[in-house]
Amino acid sequence: MENNEKDFTGGIQSYIDYLEANKRHSSAKSYRDAWRSFTRFAGMERIPSLRNKH
């Protein structure tokens, strides 16, 4: 994974963490689901650094 991909994934995860810390769990789930869909569409089967919280 290239450095800019790690930065992007880290940024997504940071925002999801921010949403959850502010009790916006529904929004965090929406972002996580959208990210998961995007990576599948892009040909990545799993997201290496995105934490899976349910």
What attributes does this structure have?
about 55 residues; mainly alpha; 2 helices; about 0% strand
How are the SSEs ordered, and which strands pair?
Elements: H1 3-21, H2 25-41
Helix pairs in contact: 1-2
- What best-fitting shape do the alpha-carbon axes yield? flat
> How many beta strands in the DSSP annotation?
0
Order of helices and strands: HH
Q: What separation lies between the terminal Cα atoms?
A: 25 Å
Mean pLDDT: 80
Treating each run of at least 4 consecutive H or I residues as one helix, how many helices?
Answer: 2
Determine the structural class based on helices, strands and strand pairing: mainly alpha
User: Any low-confidence stretches, pLDDT <50, length ≥5?
Assistant: none
Rg, Cα atoms, Å: 11 Å
Strand residue percentage: under 5%
Estimate the helix proportion, in percent.
55-70%
Largest sheet: none
